[in-house]
Design a protein that fits this description.
Helices cover 37% and strands 33% of the residues. It has six helices and seven strands. The longest helix is centred in the first third of the chain and has 15 residues.
Length: 155
């Protein structure tokens, strides 16, 4: 199926918020263990209102569109941090996440940045390593879940 990656627009905010919530609840079970207390705090800010703020704010939000629906979302900050990279459950392992990461990294390169950084849930660590990200050794625990820091040279 054809995949289009583009900058998100205001009209995408509701689909983006719904995608984030579904992806976290359904795909990140190894991190939150299916515990609503853990994932409810993780998804609390994943609202259409906040998605719109992210789309209109500094940085860049990209969406992957397949069959006229948002199937993935990626976000990069102006200082080179990957803030979001999520897909719909049925889009997992279809190349959507990789295409979003390519768009976010291109945004960083266009901004003159030399490195990309991110914090990964356990669910996504193998994926980021496959893209050339290396663990920095920094670990944060949020909402009872562990997030490891990764970095990649873009030059």
């Amino acid at each position: 199926m054809p995949l289009d990656v583009r900058r998100a627009i205001a009209e995408d905010a509701e689909q983006v918020a719904n995608l984030l919530r579904r992806s976290i609840i359904e795909l990140c079970t190894p991190d939150h263990l299916g515990d609503p207390e853990r994932y409810e705090r993780w998804i609390a800010n994943k609202t259409p209102e906040n998605a719109l703020k992210w789309i209109e704010g500094p940085g860049a939000v990209f969406v992957a569109v397949t069959e006229c629906r948002v199937s993935g979302v990626g976000m990069g900050s102006p200082d080179g941090e990957v803030l979001l990279n999520y897909v719909l459950p049925d889009a997992r392992f279809s190349g959507v996440s990789k295409a979003l990461m390519e768009a976010v990294e291109a945004y960083f390169v266009d901004a003159g940045l030399k490195t990309s950084k991110l914090k990964s849930s356990g669910t996504a660590e193998r994926f980021y390593r496959s893209l050339g990200y290396a663990e920095t050794g920094e670990v944060e625990v949020h909402r009872g879940m562990t997030f490891r820091s990764f970095r990649k040279s873009l030059i």
